[in-house]
Write a structure and sequence with these properties.
Number of strands: 4
Number of helices: 4
CATH class: Alpha Beta
CATH architecture: 2-Layer Sandwich
Order of helices and strands: HHHEEHEE
Radius of gyration: 15 Å
Helix content: 40-55%
Number of domains: 1
């Protein structure tokens, strides 16, 4: 296991607790808030918003710090390919659909670093048996 299982396990357990106590919608809401609070602190606010290179640097450095292997095969002016080679939340596979969980942090990462004129789709996912999770982040037309 290459990623920081203890770090991500705390988030997994928090999600499971919220889901058991309050239901899926509330669990997703609180999980999103936890992600946003933690990520905003780690990314800071002293960066060039809207820059694919900045996204690659900030997200790549933070992911590395928490033990995730990621890659960015594309970081162009209107598109970023962001791949997770590790599954940070393997113990949530049976708890929630992958797209709902991914929204908890991907929406924030994209909007906070790149802005409202950017969006993303998920092309591949480890939970679907793919070799990695791949998000295509793109500038809206």
């Amino acid at each position: 296991m290459n990623y920081n299982a203890a770090f991500f396990g705390l988030f997994e357990n928090t999600f499971k607790l919220f889901k058991r106590e309050y239901g899926e919608d509330i669990a997703l809401k609180h999980f999103t808030e936890l992600m946003e609070q933690g990520l905003s602190k780690s990314y800071g606010n002293d960066f060039e918003k809207g820059s694919p290179e900045t996204f690659k640097q900030l997200v790549g450095e933070r992911d590395e710090l928490v033990g995730l292997r990621v890659e960015f095969p594309t970081a162009a002016s209107n598109e970023i390919i962001y791949r997770f080679l590790d599954d940070p939340f393997p113990n949530l596979r049976q708890e929630i659909k992958s797209n709902l969980l991914d929204q908890c942090y991907m929406n924030f990462k994209v909007k906070y670093i790149l802005g409202d004129e950017w969006d993303y789709t998920t092309n591949k996912h480890l939970w679907n048996g793919d070799e990695y999770t791949e998000h295509r982040i793109y500038k809206k037309q």
